[in-house]
């Protein structure tokens, strides 16, 4: 694949996740999956960029981003479990943000 095909594929994957996030924001699990898809496309893009530039220092950037993505996924799943236990489902429409 050429660089234009790779960049087009990565940007379309990112915007597909962004579109999914905007359409499926009623359930927390769907939103988390769309966010993970977006993070995966950025992770692959950073890895390919470091390989194309033949630099050794930027090879740590995808590893750092993967670590942050794993922390984000763990935090999101713990919030989803807490929401499901307290409200009975992961449907975000059942949450009342004005109530303590």
TrEMBL record:
UniProt main location, coarse: mitochondrion
Cellular component, GO annotation: mitochondrial inner membrane; NADH dehydrogenase complex
Keyword flag ATP-binding: no
GO BP: any one term: ATP synthesis coupled electron transport
Entries under InterPro entries matching the protein: NADH_UbQ_OxRdtase_chain4L/K, NUOK/Mnh_C1-like
Catalytic activity: a ubiquinone + NADH + 5 H(+)(in) = a ubiquinol + NAD(+) + 4 H(+)(out)
Membrane topology: Multi-pass membrane protein
Molecular function terms from GO: NADH dehydrogenase (ubiquinone) activity; oxidoreductase activity, acting on NAD(P)H
Enzyme class: translocase
Entry's transmembrane regions: 7-23, 29-51, 63-84
Keywords: Electron transport, Membrane, Mitochondrion, Mitochondrion inner membrane, NAD, Respiratory chain, Translocase, Transmembrane, Transmembrane helix, Transport, Ubiquinone
Localization terms from the record: Mitochondrion inner membrane; Mitochondrion membrane
Pfam families, sorted: Oxidored_q2 (PF00420)
EC number: 7.1.1.2
Signal peptide residue numbers: none
Keyword Cell wall biogenesis/degradation attributed: no
Purpose of the protein: Core subunit of the mitochondrial membrane respiratory chain NADH dehydrogenase (Complex I) which catalyzes electron transfer from NADH through the respiratory chain, using ubiquinone as an electron acceptor. Part of the enzyme membrane arm which is embedded in the lipid bilayer and involved in proton translocation.
Family, similarity comment: Belongs to the complex I subunit 4L family.
Protein name: NADH-ubiquinone oxidoreductase chain 4L
């Amino acid at each position: 694949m050429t660089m234009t095909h790779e960049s087009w594929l990565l940007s379309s994957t990112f915007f597909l996740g962004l579109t999914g996030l905007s359409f499926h924001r009623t359930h927390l699990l769907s939103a988390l999956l769309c966010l993970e898809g977006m993070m995966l496309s950025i992770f692959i893009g950073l890895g390919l960029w470091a390989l194309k530039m033949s630099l050794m220092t930027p090879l740590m950037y995808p590893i750092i981003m993967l670590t942050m993505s794993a922390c984000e996924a763990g935090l999101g799943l713990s919030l989803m479990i807490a929401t499901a236990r307290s409200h009975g489902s992961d449907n975000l429409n059942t949450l009342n943000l004005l109530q303590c």
